[in-house]
Amino acid sequence: MTPAGGSAVHAALAGDPVLAEHYAEFRAKSEAALDPALVALIRQAVAAVHGMGAAPDESTLDQGTRLCLAYARRMPFEHTAITDAEAAAVVAHLGEPGYVAFSVVTALADAECRAALVDLPGLATL
């Protein structure tokens, strides 16, 4: 799971403070466009796909949030199989700007998990 306040990607960018700052700002702006609870659930769902934690408990979540999490779980390894109808359902729930933010947050969560799994900060120092 992504450490609080940072990520393996951010740590790998530590050698370039300007780039690290831009990455952190981009991530923060993307996350700010969504409900913080949804962002946390997305990160948790993606981390679970990568075997980096437990999946979120969806038993009390509304249908729209469950739909978003199902979509988020597919993005790391099945993104090409997501249908237009599935994307349209997320757009209907979040709106077009929300869908864009959701897509960015999910992609960054996936990238940060992958970076942690391969110790990207360690590789960046080689």
Describe this structure as you would to a colleague.
The chain is mostly helical. It contains six helices and no strands. It has helices at about 10, 15-30, 35-50, 65-80, 85-115, 120-125. The longest helix has about 35 residues, at about 85-115. The radius of gyration is 15 Å and the shape is globular. It starts with 7 loop residues before the first helix and ends with a helix.
Keywords:
mainly alpha; 126 residues; 6 helices; globular; single chain; 71% helix
Helix content: over 70%
CA-based gyration radius = 15 Å
Report the major sheet: none
Terminal CA distance = 24 Å
**Oligomeric description of these chains:** single chain
Structural class comes to mainly alpha
Order of helices and strands: HHHHHH
Instruction: Please report which band the strand proportion falls in: under 5%, 5-15%, 15-25%, 25-35%, 35-45% or over 45%.
Output: under 5%
Given as residue ranges, the uncertain stretches (5+ residues, pLDDT < 50) are 1-5
Give me the count of strands.
0
Question: What's the total helix number?
Answer: 6
**Which descriptor suits the 3D outline?**
globular
Average pLDDT: 90
